[in-house]
Design brief:
alpha/beta, Rossmann fold, seven-stranded parallel beta sheet, 12 helices, 15 strands, 37% helix, 13% strand
Length: 400
């Protein structure tokens, strides 16, 4: 891939990329030279969702063989179709609560790696359907890990939860992985429960102390916590960016709830890079992998934890035209007012750090959504943005 940097930006902070081609598919970001995703068999739950779709495409670009397992996309349009994912992965339909189908789908594939992203991901929907939320996010996670227990080929599991799994005390500082879990609403508490389920399976069946030991086991399990992920291809209901895009394209003012709420916004490629690095560490040969079998936060820099109004005003500016917004007098159900993550552990253990400044992330997603208005095939653009991000990582750069 050829990437041209703006000359006005210092070399250590170059970021406004013009991307035209793609990187070779065997390029793995920030990985040991002897590691390759080429031929790695990956079982991915939730590939029909926003984050799962981006991860599926990235993994196939790196050379992995991906079997996706998920429900039908719940929005139309959706990333599965827009990025033509069934053309590059094995696309299976199934519910993670269906133990028999899940077990067979995983065992038949004999994966080395499992990424568990399938979930009911919406706070407001969890108020309308709390039981379905708990069944999917808690029992579903237990079903996935139980299937892993009966699939001896699995060596690494990354189970994805959320930044909202913490007991939110509206602190000014970021939550660390050792802080208490909690959750005011059904969604948040269901994800805290999913963390406890993952920890219990790790302790009971895949204890790190027994990893690659005589009479032990060969499976390392970690959890990943990230939230307020943005990027092209998210059309979910009651999320800020999709709501803005829908209003902008209709030429209508967008009603905004809670403009002062602060969130750890980050482009979808940021945590996905973390998940990939974490899986690679879990695949380390020998007992060394055990130290990575724990929980990891993936969050932006302090400067990029911004209020909703900052996002809205910049999105309005980048979109241009008649884009506008108004304050919604009804804030609706309870949502956290202040939430940040401390990602020090990921920086120290994995060598991960954010690469895209928030303003650049917004520019990328505006470009993606504007392209979606004129074409139904977004696979090439999605791969180009992945390649541009890989260049940042490989060159040890950040965007401006």
């Amino acid at each position: 891939m050829f990437i041209q940097c703006r000359n006005s930006i210092p070399s250590e902070r170059r970021a406004k990329w013009t991307y035209t081609l793609d990187y070779p598919s065997d390029m793995s970001p920030n990985t040991p030279k002897d590691f390759s995703w080429q031929g790695q068999r990956v079982f991915l739950t939730g590939h029909t969702g926003f984050k799962g779709g981006w991860l599926a495409l990235w993994l196939t670009k790196l050379g992995a063989e991906v079997r996706g397992y998920g429900l039908d996309p719940y929005t139309d349009p959706n990333l599965l179709s827009a990025a033509r994912l069934p053309s590059v992965i094995e696309d299976l339909r199934g519910d993670i609560r269906d133990a028999a189908r899940l077990d067979k789908s995983m065992a038949d594939f004999s994966p080395e790696v499992v990424f568990h992203l399938a979930a009911q991901p919406l706070v407001r929907l969890s108020y309308a359907d709390p039981i379905g939320t708990y069944e999917t996010n808690v029992i579903g996670t237990a079903r996935v890990l139980d299937a892993v227990r009966r699939t001896p080929s699995v060596r690494a599991v990354v189970s994805v939860t959320t930044d909202k799994c913490y007991e939110n005390k509206e602190w000014l500082w970021g939550y660390r992985e050792t802080d208490p879990l909690g959750g005011y609403d059904p969604y948040s508490s269901s994800k805290a429960c999913a963390e406890l389920v993952s920890a219990a399976f790790r302790s009971s069946y895949f204890h790190p102390a027994q990893l690659h030991q005589p009479n032990g086991h060969t499976t390392a399990i970690a959890t990943a916590r990230a939230g307020n992920v943005i990027g092209g291809g998210d059309w979910s209901l009651d999320r800020l960016i999709p709501d803005l895009i829908a209003g902008f394209t209709r030429g209508e003012p967008v009603r905004i709830r809670r403009p002062d709420a602060i969130r750890p916004w980050q482009h979808v490629l940021e945590p996905l890079h973390g998940y990939i690095l974490l899986a690679e560490k879990l695949l380390s040969p020998g007992p060394e992998a055990a130290k990575y079998a724990t929980a990891y936060n993936f969050g932006p820099t302090e400067d990029d934890a911004q209020p909703v109004q900052w996002i809205v005003e910049n999105m309005t500016r980048f979109w241009g035209g008649s884009a506008s917004w108004v304050l919604d007098p009804d804030p609706g159900v309870h949502e956290a007012g202040y939430l940040k993550l401390d990602a020090s552990r990921a920086r120290h253990d994995l060598g991960w750090r954010p690469r895209l400044r928030l303003e650049t992330a917004l520019e990328w997603l505006v470009e993606w959504y504007k392209a979606s208005l004129t074409t139904t095939d977004l696979q090439a653009l999605t791969l180009q943005q992945i390649a541009a991000y890989e260049h940042l990582v490989a060159s040890n750069l950040e965007s401006a």
